[in-house]
């Protein structure tokens, strides 16, 4: 298991104490770009869905607006204006999305910008599938408060989904695919299945099921907390957010 001060798993994960807010204010252009990629990874899907529903944009326009927002965050150094004493980062991101989209609508047909600024692969088809499965009627969330609530829930969904993928990669790298399959079967599918049934189906003991699920849940929680910390501006903010998401103990 990586130490809490080492990079997590495989790929370009940040250090545990690394924050996009701190990195966005760096004098190093590469560090600022890295912050944008991390921010994009955490927020692109909530932003995309929010734009799709609140502004009734078709998929192609919502994709362009999503890309454009994150490019503008870098070009105009918008994260440097974020004040953690006034709001949470995700509230600031939502307000940036509103401002950007309204400005783009006002200047319809303007040349696209910053197409090469983002390096995160954005799976818009997956986001569309999720919207279809949710069968959300925009008319039912038409008030500003409802759209804020929708954005909050989608941000949490995105955070946990990313942590699941982190766990999947970790299991693959350690040849523990069967452990991830167990975690997926019990914790992700929503099927009503017992430990005994899982043990029988996989030819292992109930104790093995218990131990493997405990390990997977611990790693999932660690990944979720690390991703949460990286998009919090202070340890105090992280503590508040973690308590809200994970309960009193985290």
Layout: helices, strands, pairs:
Blueprint: H1 20-24, H2 29-54, H3 59-75, H4 89-106, H5 124-134, H6 144-173, H7 177-188, H8 195-202, H9 206-230, H10 235-246
Helix pairs in contact: 2-3, 2-6, 3-4, 6-7, 6-9, 7-9, 8-9, 9-10
What does this structure look like?
The protein has 250 residues and is an all-alpha fold. It has one domain (20-246). It is built from 10 helices and no strands. The chain has helices at residues 20-24, 29-54, 59-75, 89-106, 124-134, 144-173, 177-188, 195-202, 206-230, 235-246. The longest helix is centred in the middle third of the chain and has 30 residues, at 144-173.
Number of strands: 0
User: What is the overall pLDDT average?
Assistant: 83
* Shape designation: globular
Q: What multimeric state do the chains show?
A: single chain
List low-pLDDT spans.
1-17
Alpha-carbon distance between the termini? 18 Å
Strand residue content: under 5%
């Amino acid at each position: 298991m990586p130490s809490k001060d080492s990079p997590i798993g495989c790929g370009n994960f940040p250090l545990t104490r690394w924050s996009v807010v701190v990195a966005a204010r760096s004098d190093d252009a590469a560090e600022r770009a890295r912050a944008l990629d991390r921010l994009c990874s955490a927020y692109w899907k909530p932003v995309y869905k929010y734009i799709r529903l609140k502004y009734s944009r078709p998929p192609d326009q919502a994709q362009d607006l999503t890309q454009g927002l994150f490019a503008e965050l870098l070009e105009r150094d918008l994260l440097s204006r974020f004040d953690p004493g006034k709001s949470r980062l995700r509230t600031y991101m939502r307000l940036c999305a509103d401002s950007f989209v309204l400005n783009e609508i006002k200047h319809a047909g303007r040349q696209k910008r910053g197409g090469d600024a983002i390096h995160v692969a954005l799976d818009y088809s997956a986001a569309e599938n999720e919207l279809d499965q949710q069968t959300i009627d925009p008319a039912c969330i038409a008030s500003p408060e409802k759209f804020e609530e929708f954005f909050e829930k989608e941000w949490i969904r995105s955070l946990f989904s990313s942590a699941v993928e982190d766990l999947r990669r970790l299991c693959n790298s350690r040849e523990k695919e069967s452990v991830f399959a167990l975690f997926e079967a019990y914790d992700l599918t929503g099927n009503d299945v017992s430990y005994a049934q899982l043990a029988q189906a996989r030819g292992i003991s109930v104790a093995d099921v218990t131990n493997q699920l405990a390990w997977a849940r611990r790693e999932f929680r660690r990944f979720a907390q690390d991703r949460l910390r990286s998009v919090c501006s202070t340890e105090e903010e992280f503590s508040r957010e973690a308590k809200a998401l994970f309960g009193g103990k985290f």
